[in-house]
C-alpha cells in the first residue's frame, strides 16, 4: 500500500467516524440508560464483598472485600467497552430487507457497524470514567500504578472488542439461514458472562470449569485485563493472552468472511 492509498483510506475513515459519531450523539440518553442497566457485575461485586467481609479470615480464595470491589468495578468498566449489539442490527437488516440499500454503498456494511461501535464508545467513555471514579472512591477499590500494566490493558481491550465484534457479527450473519439468529447471541452472552469472569473471578471456579473457560476466548477478553489492573496477572500473562486473542480474532475474521460471502449469495438468490 502506497502513501496515497493510505491517505485515501484515512480520509474515508475520518468521514465515516464523523458521521457515526454524529449519529451516536443522538442516542446519548439511551446510551446512559444502557450503561446503568448493565450492572450485573456490580451486583455480583456487592454479593462477593459481603461474603468476604463475613468470612472468618476476611477473604475468599485470596480476595478481600476490597479486592472484590477492585475486580468487579474493573469488570464493569471493561464490559462497557466490550458491549456489542451488531448481531441484532444485522439480523434485523437481513430479515426486513433493509440490508439491500446498504449493499449498494461503496463500503462494506461491516466497517459501518465497526466504526459505529467505536463512535459509541467515544460518547460512552466520559460518563463511564466519572462513574468508575465514584465507584472506586465509595468502595476503596485500588489499582496498580505500574504504567506497563495499564499499557498492556490498552493493548488487550481493543483486540478483545474486535474479537467480540467479529463473534457477534458472525452470529448476525446466521440470519441468512435462521429466522431468529439473536437466540444464538443470548446463548453466547451466557457463556461470555459465566466463563469471562463477569459473575466471579475465574480463579474461584472449580479446576474443571477453569480448564473449560481457558479453552474459550472469554477469560482473555474480560477477566485477564481486569486482573492486570488489580495486580492478579503479570505482563507474561498479558502477552500470552494477547496472542491467544489474536488467534481467535483471525479465526473469526475468516469465519465472518466466509459467512458473509455465502450469505449474500443466498440473499441475492431469493431476490431480496
Describe the structure in your own words:
The chain is mainly alpha-helical. The model has no long low-confidence stretch (mean pLDDT 89). 77% of the residues lie in helices and 1% in strands. The protein is built from twelve helices and two strands. A hairpin with a 2-residue loop joins strand 1 (59-60) and strand 2. Helix 5 (86-96) packs parallel to helix 8 (147-173). The protein has a two-stranded antiparallel sheet with strand order 1-2.
List the helices and strands and how they pair.
Elements: H1 3-25, H2 28-37, H3 40-54, E1 59-60, E2 63-64, H4 65-81, H5 86-96, H6 99-103, H7 109-139, H8 147-173, H9 182-196, H10 207-214, H11 218-230, H12 235-269
Antiparallel strand pairs: 1-2
Helix pairs in contact: 1-7, 2-7, 3-4, 4-7, 4-11, 5-8, 8-11, 8-12, 9-11, 11-12
Looking at this protein, list some descriptive labels.
272 residues, 12 helices, 1% strand
How many β-strands, per DSSP? Answer: 2
Structural class: mainly alpha
Characterize the biggest β-sheet: 2 strands, antiparallel
Weakly predicted, low-confidence segments: none
H/E element sequence: HHHEEHHHHHHHHH
Shape: globular
What is the first-to-last residue Cα distance? 35 Å
β-strand amount: under 5%
| Overall residue-averaged pLDDT value | 89
Radius of gyration: 20 Å
Enumerate the strands of the largest sheet in spatial order, edge to edge or round the barrel.
1-2
Total count of helical runs of at least 4 residues: 12
Percent of residues in helices comes to: over 70%
